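## Example pair
The file below holds two records. Each record gives the amino-acid sequence first, followed by its structure token line.
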Amino acid sequence: MNIVIAGLGIIGGSLAKAIKKYTDNYVYGINRSPEPLKKAMECGAIDEIGNCESLKTADILVLGIYPEAAVEFVRKNGEYINKNCIVIDTSGIKSEICPKMNELAKKYGFTFVGFHPMAGKEKNGFDVSEADLFNNASAILIPGDAPHDAVEKIAMFCKKLRFGMVVYTTPEEHDRMIAFTSQLPHVIACAYVFSPNCLKHNGFSAGSYRDVSRVANINANLWSELFIENKQTLVNEIDTLIENLTKIRSGIEKGDRDELAALLHKGKLIKEALGE
């Protein structure tokens, strides 16, 4: 297949490297700045720098760019996209993006499948991309209006790239779950490192500090867009967290060891039940 990847950051770059490592597909790269394109060509992550002509022959177009930028890319270039092409995005929100992409798919004649690879790192950019980033990771697919065979084609594509599991869902369920599993931990990490004691942690910290603070090394522009696009769902999760923190705080403040122990034990049981 001819595959065009627009956006060679950590996700787009890793997908390009995985495609070249595990398949025989031909990869075109498109990127706003030239440096990642140069590096991708030098290391063999892409076969060619893409353009509008590349979109005319694309079997799959991967949008590895910010959500609203992905929509804008298709609005600007939709007339060039091969009508047999399957367009997939990689964004971390779907309720705002999928309806817009479905409308553009109808307008320009291509097929759209929502896609979210559940993998990443604290750092961003092509320099930290790697072919095995997706090994055993989940690939979330949002079929929407796409034909079954197109969705299954993307599912098989994911399996060839060494994803461990393919999950099918709706935009709404995706955003509810991602608010809890991904967005809320980033909120917690940033709020955690706001403490004045964070500046003094050296010599006093070990695994717990690293675990909680790890994702505070955040791409602020991207995550602020993701948070606001998923505003109400994320606010609900934050409210639930505040409610639970308040219960624990109350037990500590009252010195009620039985109440506090019961809350902590409840957390332990939930984690054990998940088998993690």
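Second record, same layout:
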Amino acid sequence: MSTTLGASAKAIDVLMDKACKALEAAEYFKAEELCERAFAESRERHDFERCARICLPLQEARRQRRQAAIDTNRIRTISQLPSPRADIAEGMYLLTPPLVGIAARDFRARANKQEVPTMILVREPTTRSGKWPIVGVGTGPREPVVVRVQLEPPAAEPTVPWFLSAQEALGDAAIRGAPQDVPADHHVDDLADLLEAVPDHEKLIQELAAACRAAIGSTPSTLPRRRPLDSSPFSF
């Protein structure tokens, strides 16, 4: 058993060595993918020490991708996704009805596959109070995990400051939505699921790293997990 665990740990370290070299070479999409794989394998081994260390290069890879999208200084508002074979332009995207929250996850995956830097938000129909619900969706263990926050819409067209503020508000809502009174390993899993819903929020990655450090040496919980949030990713 110990030999198997040692071989598995070595394989994760090899992944992270490749991720760090990718970061140095400015291959940010490759670095992000390798970090995600290494994190998933470390979590599977209940190796929270490695999980915590992986968060920093993951944060840096996503920061560079995000900054490249911001540097375009352009927000595209779309209500229909490009065709599956279309090339995606880099930049910031605001998805609007009839598109729903889960569309952002699929669109982001397509952009990452093309190695195109993007930041993507989804807004749902205006509420009776005149606010815009902004939504993010992650896969979750059994069904999608959803994060929502209601914001004042921009006075006219969305601006870059408004867009970035909306992104921050959504990530802050994700952090608040993670239950605190849960086993240490569950808290890690909750934050990891929420990070899928809001992948470009640095404080959320930092919260995940802190949760991983707190979980080092913990005993795997046998209790059923509670969902961080309970909303439909398909509805308005």
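Notes on the second record: Helices lie at 2-24, 28-44, 48-71, 101-113, 160-177, 184-197, 202-215. Confidence is low (pLDDT under 50) at residues 230-236.
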